[in-house]
From TrEMBL:
Keywords for this protein: Kinase, Transferase
Single GO biological process annotation from the record: guanosine tetraphosphate metabolic process
Record Pfam families: RelA_SpoT (PF04607)
Organism: Microbacterium sediminis
Protein name per Swiss-Prot or TrEMBL: GTP pyrophosphokinase
GO MF annotation, one: kinase activity
Keyword set includes Transmembrane: no
InterPro entries the record matches: GTP_Pyrophosphokinase (IPR052366), NT_sf (IPR043519), RelA_SpoT (IPR007685)
All residue ranges annotated as the RelA/SpoT domain in the record: 65-188
Domain of life (superkingdom): Bacteria
Amino acid sequence: MTGDAADALTIDDEVLEHARELRDDLARFLSEYRFGMREIETKMLILREDFEHTHAYNPIENVSCRLKTPDSILAKVMRKGIEPDFESIREEITDIAGVRVTCSFVSDVYRLFELLAGQDDVTVLEVKDYIAQPKPNGYKSLHAIVEVPVFLSTGTVRVPVEVQFRTIAMDFWASLEHKIYYKYERQVPRRLTDSLRDAAYTAAELDERMERIHREIHGATPEPVRPLRALEGGGEQVA
């Protein structure tokens, strides 16, 4: 083997070793968010089971989780001009881990948020109430960034998790809107955006009507704590 070939092989080995280290670091980094996501998922599933046994009523229709892919994280890093290191990403991107809680009624959304926010090991960092103030396109949901401790063999880390609470009607609308925007690569014709906005109003009206029927059958329930009140001890309310 010539000297040049040996040098090239050494460089390739160094690059390969660096790539392996980066891969392992990324896996450890994402595992913290995966564990934090599972912590929130478990909390919501416990609440669902408790409601079924204690109140003979289940306010949670579905709980789903998602973890951003490395490509998705990188795209956000580039879009927001974040330094491409793990510490900067940890500080600037708070929705790497996400949990979506689909509820039966709007009152359930706020009630479940209150119950989650009131747990001793949960810190609410930020709330965006798109139910009280929908987005211009009609989107409705309650978004909360919460922080939970994850207990690892190397110590405890606090992990931010985005939790989205929405009703079945809101979830159906958001799913359809996402598919349309994906199909048209975000260049959706005006007639469709207008139709989507009208559909959002219809979905909101359906939520209100179903809530009234629910209250007629089961009686009025105590008014749930709104996010701003739940944050009196800290955190930030963002409309």
